[in-house]
# Entry
Amino acid sequence: MESVKSISKTELLVNTVQKLSLARNIGEITDIVRKVARRITGADGATFVLRDGSLCYYADEDAISPLWKGSRFPMEKCISGWVMMNKKHVIIDDIYADDRIPKNAYSPTFVKSLAMVPIRKLDPIGAIGNYWASYHNASDEEISLLQSLADITAVSIENIEIRNNLEDKLNERTQMLGQLKKQKTQLEEFTHIIAHNMRAPLSNLLLLADMIKESENTSEKLLFIDQQQPVLNHIHETFEELIEAIHIKNDFSAVREYVEFEQCFNKAKDLLQAEIKMSDAVITSDFSQSDTAYFPEKYLNSVVFNLLSNSIKYRSPERKLEIHVTSYKRDGWTYLEISDNGLGIDLEKNKDKIFMLRKTFHQHPDARGFGLFITKTQIEAMDGTIEVKSNPGMGSTFTIKLFKNIST
# Structure
């Protein structure tokens, strides 16, 4: 009969090893172990204790009535702490006759006897305890089975820690690859911008330099020198704009926060009040569907200001300017949309140039071709997107996907 019981308990431990090998976190381990710990000894209760600094944390239990699940006790005042600090098991057949037992903690419980073993003998990280409602002196076999379970548990916990570390490193690698891909895209983008915006003025500058060198007429030389200045100004302005864009892409001080759309909208209107009055623009808003954005405030202020400013700047002389700003949620994202009935843009001709540096689509003395470029840069720096729908003579609508809502 004893042999059958031994085989049954051995099989139980084997099955437990298989279950623990599939456990993915400490919670799953404690749930498995607390049940098995009680079964292999026939105890009336079992606890799973974890070391939490200088405290013993009673993480889980399986018992005929409640014990201490969720409680924490100082290591030096708890029998599980004694087991961990001394790195060995303990058998107590009468808890009220042992000075290591805090009587006030045990008096409300059914416990009269106990046995406890450490989880990992060399450097214990926890303990497994068995409790009996009647006086019981745990046998060598029971202690051996309980310690075997504790050893299996230690290996399982270590495996989870290794797995978690590997997953963390894999996540870090994935993030690093994503960052490298993003930086590669940015580098290609800036290389294109530099090549596109610098080649012509630099060629012009070199040509003027050659003409100065070859000319023997002083007044002609001075004329060529004067002609260099606007080219140099253009190169300097372009360089400064690129530096600002690079700063935005690497600005770690741009922290997301909850910002009210109404606040940004009103701030932009205040800054543009002279232009609004002069243009007699009618500007309306609706933020009822989504009143806040989880976005850096300085970027959102800049985005709203630039888009409102562009709508006013490129208004149609044939009709009263109307601008509408709205926000909404769709597919877990928060959007901001700014529409106007202005001049509009011919997207068939200019679709690939809309957000490029120093690209303008209408004759205007203040047009620099920088506002949409920097707006796109700020939005994409926060993993958002901006799109435009427009028709010549009818107006434009800019749709900005700002952020993915955390709760979805």
The two ends are 58 Å apart (CA to CA). The chain has a mean pLDDT of 83. The CA atoms of residues 4 and 148 lie 19 Å apart.
